[in-house]
Write a structure and sequence with these properties.
By secondary structure, the chain is an alpha/beta fold. It has eleven helices and seven strands.
């Protein structure tokens, strides 16, 4: 971060801000001088984050809203406009997860749940802020997807399909808004140190997830702040998963092979992503 705040005049909405990447992103923007509006379903959890931010930046507000409800999202955005008069950045982070095969009994219900929050929640928020950003003639929208939103993983059909939808939506939106002064960034993290998969038993996670080093929420947050400042259309965090995306772009078979190799330590070691037996043992996860 630069010592001089780059976002002191900006009003930034962060959804899913009570924990993980959302919390870290809100803190990062606040440290860079922005007025941050925290959004999630739990006002109590948001207030904890707000208190943390107020220790160094008093410009923070918390609004409870369920992003899967279009009505609640529109009411939240209207409240921000009334209070602050503008919306400069929307970080569409709120989302959930699911693991299981396509033939699993919960697959359809999982897919519907993920689409409601992780996809339509982003659609509702984008549509709600666009009128304000168009009036201003400027703004920036950040949509959190995942590396799995470009290359699907086995047993992550519902999760990958939802984030592919997010990636496609974000790509289309960026092109629609070209020349409007409104930027769009798609963020594709790999496995991050968040609570997204805390409810999933370790033995249900693919070997790739059990063996790969995770990227910190702070690293993703800092990448988001930089991307908004630099007007980047795409961000992959960390850099190593780009090899998987490049391989898949060359050949689907090569991409599938790459995914299989990532479930084994040699390639993870080569890429610097291997968790290591000692670390895996400490976390209680098998190697």
């Amino acid at each position: 971060m630069n010592s001089k705040p780059r976002n002191h005049h900006r009003i930034v909405i962060v959804t899913g801000a009570s924990s993980g990447i959302g919390r870290a992103t809100a803190v990062a923007f606040a440290r860079d001088g922005a007025t941050v509006v925290l959004v999630s379903r739990s006002l109590r959890n948001l207030e904890r984050v707000a208190e943390e931010i107020r220790r160094f930046n008093p410009k923070v507000a918390a609004i409870a809203a369920d992003v899967s409800s279009q009505q609640q999202v529109e009411a939240m955005v209207a409240a921000v406009e009334r209070e602050f008069g503008r919306i400069d950045v929307l970080v569409n982070n709120a989302g959930t997860s699911a693991v299981g095969p396509v033939a699993g009994t919960s697959f359809v219900a999982d897919a519907e749940r993920l689409l409601a929050t992780s996809f339509f929640g982003k659609v509702f928020a984008v549509r709600a802020v666009l009128s304000a950003m168009r009036r201003q003639g400027q703004g920036h929208i950040v949509n959190l997807s995942s590396v799995a939103g470009r290359k699907a993983l086995p047993d992550f059909g519902a999760y990958s399909a939802t984030l592919h939808a997010v990636t496609g939506f974000s790509d289309s939106l960026r092109q629609e808004l070209h020349g409007s002064g409104i930027g769009v960034t798609t963020v594709l993290p790999s496995l991050a140190q968040t609570a997204l998969f805390d409810g999933v038993a370790p033995d249900r996670l693919p070997a790739l997830f059990r063996q790969m080093k995770s990227v910190s929420a702070d690293a993703v947050a800092n990448a988001i702040v930089r991307a908004v400042y630099r007007q980047q259309p795409w961000v992959v965090v960390p850099w190593q998963p780009r090899w998987l995306l490049w391989a898949d772009a060359l050949s689907v078979r090569l991409g599938d092979w790459f995914v299989r190799q990532l479930s084994r330590p040699p390639l993870l070691r080569l890429l610097g992503l291997y968790r290591g037996r000692h670390e895996a043992a400490e976390t209680g996860k098998p190697v």
